[in-house]
Every structure is written in C-alpha cells, then in structure tokens.
Design goal:
Elements (H helix, E strand, L loop, with lengths): L1 H4 L5 H27 L7 H28 L22 H43 L1
Helix pairs in contact: 2-3, 3-4
C-alpha cells in the first residue's frame, strides 16, 4: 500500500481512511437522494439552484475533510491553536497544524452546506404539502 510506504499508516489512521471511504459514499447517496427529491419540491428556480449548490458544497467539504484529515493525520476538531507567544494563533507544530485548520474549515463548509440544503428541502416539502391539501379541499 502506498500510504504505508510513505509512513502515513497507523491504527488511528487506518480508521480515518475507513471513515473517508464510507463517509464519502454516504455523502454521495445523500446527494443522489437530494437530486431525486428536487422535482417533487415546490421551489423557485433560484431556490433549487441554491439547494443544489449547498448540497454539492456539503459533499465536497466532507470529501475534502475526510481525505485530507486521513492524509495528514488530523481530525479537524480544533479550529485554532491558542498560544501565549506571537503570533498567538500559531501552534508549536507549525505547518503540520495547517492540515488541521484545513480539515476543520472543510467540515464547517459541509455543515453550512447541509444546513442550507435541508432548509430549502423543508421549505419545498411544506410548499408541496400545502398545495396537495388545497387540491384535496377543492
């Protein structure tokens, strides 16, 4: 395996690569389900575009976060490193810590993306339910 030749494999890292593969597959299924549900939602073209873009941003954010996190050995749990020396947000680990910041930013992008897409999903589904109940009452 190329990762073991580069010295990137450890027990923790094997688990991160496993999550990277299963997490990306799960996000792909979410994107397919969101795309299949869109025609049934009552949304304007702009709302559909925003929902699709947010969903794609979420999928890409998670894929980047999982992959970079496994490659650099960070999970992205801490966004910044506080120290009492100048510059105050710089960690003693130096550039290696930049990988953690990148992973954290990717996961934050994914969280914002899924939140926006779920918001438009709920708006569209409620509009569809409203239209269906009005048709039944006529």
């Amino acid at each position: 395996m190329i990762h073991s030749r580069l010295g990137l494999m450890s027990v923790d890292n094997v688990n991160q690569w496993r999550v990277a593969h299963s997490g990306s597959s799960m996000n792909a299924i979410l994107a397919i389900a969101g795309g299949c549900a869109q025609p049934f939602l009552t949304l304007s073209p702009a709302q559909r575009g925003t929902m699709g873009t947010a969903l794609a941003g979420s999928v890409w954010g998670n894929a980047l976060g999982y992959t970079v996190g496994a490659a650099v050995g960070h999970r992205g749990l801490t966004p910044v490193c506080l120290s009492n020396k100048f510059p105050y947000l710089w960690c003693p680990e130096g550039l290696q810590y930049f990988g953690n910041v990148l992973v954290n930013a990717s996961f934050m992008m994914a969280i914002v993306g899924i939140t926006v897409s779920l918001y438009y999903f709920v708006i569209g589904a409620s509009g569809t339910m409203r239209e269906n109940s009005q048709k039944r009452n006529k």
